[in-house]
Write a structure and sequence with these properties.
Elements lengths: L14 H5 L2 E3 L10 H10 L23 H7 L5 H12 L5 H17 L2 E4 L2 E2 L1 H6 L5 H18 L2 E2 L1 E6 L4 H13 L5 E7 L11 H9 L3 E6 L5 H9 L5 E4 L7 H10 L2 E4 L1 H6 L11 H6 L4 E3 L4 H4 L3 H12 L3 H13 L5 H10 L1
Parallel strand pairs: 1-2, 2-4, 3-5, 5-6, 6-7, 7-8, 8-9, 9-10
Helix pairs in contact: 2-3, 5-7, 8-9
Keywords: Hydrolase, Metal-binding, Zinc
Organism: Koribacter versatilis (strain Ellin345)
EC number: 3.5.4.4
Length: about 350
């Protein structure tokens, strides 16, 4: 796998990009854990489960306490399996409400540094349930972190609860039922991630229908590791309002035209797509073609600490590698608020700042 996005050759984010108000619509809470925080979590919870070996990464993690250098090495994974194992290294050490409060608060702090004023992070509720954990007390910790982060850094957060495609619809029902139960506590939507081929969208049709009936918004990872048919299914079977990644939409001109005409937003994650090998090289990424075709693209980081990227850096990649002008970037930033699951009055407040 190509472990470089090419971003090391780019200029630092411009003052315009840093000052541009932005929303982050494709961000996994667990993927925001930086090496220092992972080392701190490791000291709190030295897991007894073997998580990594150096077949996949630059360090072996077999239950010992990790130093910050160890944590950095875990994020220097060698392939997509290594990325999944790095993600597991984090989730194995998220055990109690204080842990989730810590990572949520630090996520808010980093978002503020990036000029991000609003975010809709995914929470891997499906993974927590799959591991046999109880969720409500962990969510209490997230909410404490969110409240502190909003107070201290001025970043507004609403949550999206994420199910896992390849765990199947029975597990998905658990996630959606919990999202419905907690929708008055800043939960605005549901999503499905994981193995697209191993969990077809059509299996989740009734789950999504139930979520929509109960006032939740709908998004779905699609077209990241599989082709355009996954995106069609997310829209037709799930009625998804946004598409996570949507990388392979460009392979189907009819789909691109439909996305543009319908105004369906795509949560584009450039560096993520290259780091996971879903896109072979930065220069081959279709973000410019999608934008020029009139597709409503938003720019996001996915798992920024694991992919070595930042939101301002992703905007700078658009400018340096794909020729986006400042006006183009302003359009992308507007898209991020227009495609958000905020009430219309709140969208207009943010749009006015742009």
């Amino acid at each position: 796998m190509n472990s470089s996005t090419g971003s090391e050759k780019l200029s630092g984010p411009s003052s315009f990009i840093r000052s541009l108000p932005k929303a982050e619509l494709h961000l996994h809470l667990e993927g925001t854990v930086d090496p220092a925080t992972l080392a701190e979590l490791s000291r709190r919870h030295p897991t007894t489960l073997p998580v990594l070996n150096n077949r996949y990464s630059d360090v072996s993690d077999s239950g010992r306490v990790l130093s910050e250098d160890d944590a950095r090495a875990i994020y220097r994974y060698k392939d997509f399996i290594g990325f999944l194992m790095a993600f597991k290294a984090v989730t194995e050490r998220l055990r109690d409400p204080d842990d989730y409060e810590l990572i949520t608060y630090r996520m808010c702090e980093e978002l503020a540094r990036e000029g991000c004023v609003y975010a809709e992070p995914y929470v891997s509720v499906g993974v927590i349930y799959w591991r046999g954990g109880e969720f409500d007390h962990l969510f209490d910790g997230m909410e404490r972190g969110r409240e502190r982060g909003e107070r201290d850094f001025g970043v507004k957060i609403n949550w999206i609860f994420d199910a896992v495609r390849h765990f199947g619809p029975d597990e998905g029902w658990k996630v959606v039922e919990k999202a419905i139960q907690l929708r008055e506590r800043n939960v605005v939507g549901i999503g499905i991630g994981g193995d697209e081929a191993g969990g077809p969208a059509e299996n989740f049709r009734e789950i999504y229908e139930n979520a929509a009936k109960n006032g939740l918004h709908l998004t779905a990872h699609a077209g990241e590791s599989t082709g355009p048919e996954s995106i069609w299914s997310a829209m037709n079977d799930l009625k998804a309002e946004r598409i996570g990644h949507g990388l392979h939409a460009i392979e189907d001109p009819e789909l691109v035209e439909h996305l543009a005409k319908s105004g369906t937003a795509i949560e584009v994650c450039v560096s993520s797509n290259v780091r996971t090998g879903c896109c072979r090289a930065l220069a081959e990424h279709p973000v410019r073609k999608l934008f020029d075709a009139g597709v409503k693209i938003t720019i996001a980081t996915d798992d920024p600490e694991m992919f070595g990227c930042t939101l301002t850096g992703e905007y700078q990649i658009l400018q340096d590698q794909f020729g986006f002008s400042d006006d183009d970037l302003r359009r992308v930033a507007r898209n991020s608020f227009e495609a958000s699951f905020l009430p219309e009055t709140e969208k207009q407040k943010y749009l006015a700042a742009i």
